[in-house]
Amino acid sequence: MSKILILPGDGIGKEIVAQAIKVIDSLNANHNMSMNLVHGLIGGSAYDATGSPLPEETLIAAKECDSILLGAVGGHQWESLERELRPERGLLGIRAELDLFSNLRPAILYPQLANASTLKNEVVSGLDLMIVRELVGGIYFGQPRGFEIKDGERFGFNSANYFESEIARIGHSAFQIAQKRDKRVCSIDKANVLEVCELWREVMEEVSKDYPDVELSHMYVDNAAMQLVRAPKQFDVILTDNLFGDILSDEAAMLTGSLGLLPSASLGAKDKNGKMRSMYEPVHGSAPDIAGKGLANPIATILSFAMALKYSLNLDKEADALEKAVQSILDEGLRTKDILSKGMKEVSTSEMGDAIISKLQ
Ligand code: NAD
Prior knowledge:
It contains twelve helices and 14 strands. The longest helix is centred in the first third of the chain and has 18 residues, at 13-30. The chain is α/β, with parallel strands linked by helices. The protein is 40% helix and 22% strand. The chain has helices at 13-30, 44-50, 56-64, 87-97, 121-124, 164-179, 195-208, 221-230, 242-255, 299-311, 316-331, 349-360; strands spanning 2-9, 35-39, 67-72, 102-108, 128-134, 146-150, 153-157, 184-189, 215-220, 237-240, 263-270, 276-282, 334-335, 345-346. Strand 1 (2-9), helix 1 (13-30) and strand 2 form a beta-alpha-beta unit. Helix 6 (164-179) packs across helix 7 (195-208) and helix 11 crosses helix 12 (349-360). Nicotinamide-adenine-dinucleotide binds at residues 12, 16, 72-75, 88, 91, 259-260, 281, 284-290, 296-297, 300, 338.
């Protein structure tokens, strides 16, 4: 029996995760599976209930479970809290505590949704790229960081730094994924300006020697941001650090039409018994502007769970069935508001969840 920790978080998190839970219940009931759900708190709702955005019980449960499904965290009501108590700290904290260093963010444009993209059909149609982002290092975690008064004025500072071992392990992750795809890795950096990126590029060259079947290229991040909207289909696997990956993956999200469609997986290293820590979550945030209105698209969360089936639970067949169920309701013209186009039928968050489940049975 697999144990999955469910962390809905804040805002639309609860609504979208509720749809994934329905999927899990349906797989348990109709596909003879036994996934056991454990529920926990994270983010602003955890702060309200316990005074911490990452309560100890959540962390303990996270370490005991086979995998984690998370909704999203954040909201305006927690923005004035001390930085350490803000919802986003809970998310960064759990990623760091579990050492989930490899963040996989596929961007696939389903042919049914080619019109949802703001880019021309021929530029994005058939898009299938994977962003591999380093998730627990770089400037988001680097020390020293903080504020101080310097030369009589306020001064804010952060540190962008990586050890070569941190760079190498995310490199291996990306090359191994590329081996299962089109065997091309494009490593994104800013090596012309930043020393930390010079090291990144050097280490990627070294790692690539272990993967002679995979082609490695390098691109500066400013060019990559431009190429992603100019000709995104040139990429197979984009490999990048924490900061650049955060930005480029949101850009890639918009290529597909909506943040509401993009899943992600965050993976750790395998232990001696072959067990790997993992967390699955949509790329988007808690969308306070639409929370509680039944407008949120649950597809990114449901596809995140499909990634969990594939990468953590070794249930490839069920993952494929779930992805096909999503495609099939899109074929039928069902759309949440964010991806609605002329002639399609608008459905709520919950109706979208029910429709996907109906295709699974
Ligand atoms: P956001 O991703 O929450 O929303 C950006 C826009 O996309 C909004 O207009 C929103 O309505 C829309 N959107 C997002 N997800 C959607 C979905 N599933 N269906 C339909 N539309 C969707 O980003 P934001 O507005 O910059 O941030 C809101 C809060 O979320 C902030 O507190 C931020 O810190 C937090 N955040 C959390 C995560 C996370 O939990 N992983 C990621 C990003 C932002």
